[in-house]
Amino acid sequence: MASKAKTEGGILETIKTVVYALLIAGVFRTLFFQPFWIPSGSMKDTLLIGDFLFVNKMAYGYSQYSCPFGLCPFSGRILSSEPERGDVVVFRHPVNGSDFIKRLIGLPGDTVQMRNGVLFLNGQEVPQEPVGTFDEVYEQQGPMGNLPRCENGPVGEGGICTKSRFSETLPGGRTHHVLNIDTNGFGDNTDVFTVPAGHYFFMGDNRDNSQDSRYGQAVGGVGFVPAENLIGRADRIMFSSAGRSMLYFWTWRADRFFKAIE
């Protein structure tokens, strides 16, 4: 009987340990950092498919989307602070509920327009300087097996896929890379968007391969994103793998480990 009681006590302690660990992990994920894996190429070359990062949830305060599955029992934001133009932000899609990661381009009250692939903010052209090309192998990438889009396409499998790369400097002086594939798509020439109060305008750095605020929600874009949908800021890549699985250690990109996100 003593042995049976000891066994049952051991099982109970194991269950309690697991429950406590899950609770601690849940609190950590809710209040501090949320893991995020990059599944698509919309933020190349800043973020590559297979990059793994933690999202800083303290950066902008908390909303209902700070909790897993959007279950925080309040609306609006608490302990909030304003995001800065140029931040790379994870947010909840206003319609389909998935988490997106894009760069914050337009603040409330801003006007945003693309003309021939060049960004205009509040009627002023945002400077771009050419900085060579972004080259990658034309092959399936990541667990989803996505193929990259190429400016020099069509490219056969195993060939070099290139995109023109530019250094773009936003108002305030923050600089980042953007990529160009063509200058004839809808996203390269748009109407003037005026960002409503309490909303933000986001774009991917891989400008011709990003469903973002330039595209309305009815056609798969995100439109204007409400402030309460912001989850956190992406500050640093922790790990990166170019393969179909993180277990394929020979595909790890060691040069991207702990890399700051600009």
UniProtKB/TrEMBL annotation:
<keyword id="KW-0645">Protease</keyword>
<dbReference type="GO" id="GO:0016020">
    <property type="term" value="C:membrane"/>
</dbReference>
<dbReference type="GO" id="GO:0006465">
    <property type="term" value="P:signal peptide processing"/>
</dbReference>
<dbReference type="Pfam" id="PF10502">
    <property type="entry name" value="Peptidase_S26"/>
</dbReference>
<keyword id="KW-0378">Hydrolase</keyword>
<feature type="active site">
    <location>
        <position position="42"/>
    </location>
</feature>
<dbReference type="InterPro" id="IPR019533">
    <property type="entry name" value="Peptidase_S26"/>
</dbReference>
<dbReference type="InterPro" id="IPR019758">
    <property type="entry name" value="Pept_S26A_signal_pept_1_CS"/>
</dbReference>
<feature type="active site">
    <location>
        <position position="102"/>
    </location>
</feature>
<dbReference type="InterPro" id="IPR036286">
    <property type="entry name" value="LexA/Signal_pep-like_sf"/>
</dbReference>
<dbReference type="GO" id="GO:0004252">
    <property type="term" value="F:serine-type endopeptidase activity"/>
</dbReference>
<feature type="domain" description="Peptidase S26">
    <location>
        <begin position="12"/>
        <end position="238"/>
    </location>
</feature>
<dbReference type="InterPro" id="IPR019757">
    <property type="entry name" value="Pept_S26A_signal_pept_1_Lys-AS"/>
</dbReference>
<protein>
    <recommendedName>
        <fullName>Signal peptidase I</fullName>
        <ecNumber>3.4.21.89</ecNumber>
    </recommendedName>
</protein>
<dbReference type="InterPro" id="IPR000223">
    <property type="entry name" value="Pept_S26A_signal_pept_1"/>
</dbReference>
<comment type="similarity">
    <text>Belongs to the peptidase S26 family.</text>
</comment>
<dbReference type="GO" id="GO:0009003">
    <property type="term" value="F:signal peptidase activity"/>
</dbReference>
